[in-house]
Design goal:
Layout: H1 4-12, H2 16-28, H3 33-53, H4 59-82, E1 90-96, H5 103-114, E2 118-126, H6 128-136, E3 141-145, H7 149-152, H8 154-164, E4 170-174, H9 180-186, E5 190-191, H10 195-207
Helix pairs in contact: 1-2, 1-3, 2-4, 3-4, 4-5, 5-10, 6-8
């Protein structure tokens, strides 16, 4: 019998094929898809997130674990959609206009997927209008990333555009030059220094 703990452990070790096989096995043994997601995949990514925060592991290990999580999700997603399992919330994330950096953004997107969010990755060099559109399409959270001091000023434009349109989405910002002070200054709802914190803040903002 495929144990959910085994799924979590294989995910933490980044064994994508094993995760996929164990998820398939669990479903064949009539374990609920939602249970496999929460007690297998999400449980594993939660542990990875905690270890990353404590500097016990680094970005490469997180990416390998996230890849294993994706392998499991590829089996689970169609079943979750079919059974109408509601995701925790919807995140639209992108790197702001003029900035082409995406490693941090991709990591945050993966961690959110691992936490049970529906994630819309808008890519890099994203104009304010695209963030507004994503908010109109039902995003609960909008994530803005920037790696340059010259492009982080775009975050302010995006926030102003979202507020002008009466967006209800909560805005989280992050990236190397970004600080909590800057977050307060431009009126974002949250700032995260790393991917694991970004997920914690997102969850808290949705519940607020």
């Amino acid at each position: 019998m495929a144990s959910l703990n085994a799924i979590s452990e294989a995910l933490q070790k980044g064994k994508a094929d094993e995760v996929k096989a164990l998820v398939t096995q669990a479903l064949e043994e009539k374990v609920e898809a939602k249970k496999v997601l929460e007690e297998g995949l999400i449980a594993g990514m939660d542990i990875i997130g905690g270890r990353f925060k404590r500097n016990e592991i680094y970005i490469p290990e997180v990416l390998i674990a996230a890849r294993a999580m994706h392998a499991g999700m590829s089996v689970l997603e169609p079943i979750l959609i079919e059974s109408g399992v509601k995701m925790i919330g919807k995140l639209a994330i992108g790197t702001v206009k003029g900035d082409l950096h995406d490693i941090g953004k991709n990591l945050v997107a993966m961690m959110y997927k691992g936490a049970g969010f529906d994630v819309q990755d808008l890519g890099v060099d994203v104009a304010a209008e695209k963030f507004v559109q994503a908010s109109d399409d039902g995003a609960d959270l909008v994530g803005l990333s920037a790696l340059l001091t010259t492009t982080m000023v775009q975050m302010k434009n995006v926030i102003e555009s979202l507020k002008e349109k009466g967006s209800k989405a909560k805005i989280i910002i992050g990236g190397a030059p970004v600080t909590q002070n800057y977050c307060d200054e431009i009126g974002a709802h949250g700032y995260a220094a790393d991917a694991a914190t970004a997920v914690e803040i997102g969850k808290a903002l949705i519940k607020a």
